[in-house]
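ok trying again, last paste got cut off:
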Amino acid sequence: MDFNLIGSSVAIVIYLIFGGIFTGVSLFGIIRGIRSRDWTLVEGKVLGTEIKRDSDGDYSTELICCYDVDGQVHQVTETFTFTFPTKENAIRVQEKYPNGMPVPVWHDPTHPATAVLKQGSRWGQWFWLVIGLGLLALALAIGMKWVMVQ
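nice, full thing came through this time. structure:
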């Protein structure tokens, strides 16, 4: 068996797996973000914030809020990430949302427990969609070259 055939096969499988995962996850977020533009607005309240640090040393701020729909109290958590993920930026967001502060919450009218604090999709979702589609296109290109060589 030719080494290029094995290498190409492995590359195609890897690109398909990662391309499929990146594309699927980002599409889920993008579609949810687009749908959230039509969701119902209610007033929520900040329950707390928490600064998180990941394994790379990057900081983010988690905002926890509650909101009421037809007498039923729900909770939503939104994570704020930053272009420059410093501790100072995370603290700035934490200070912007003190406990008890009223905040807008958009909830899905058909599933009130599903809610967002920011409507629309995020730039990161579009970024990962492009990466995922690029990997899928690369797998297709390698596969087509592989077929043409046969």
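cool. The longest helix spans residues 3-35. Residues 12 and 139 are 5 Å apart (CA to CA).
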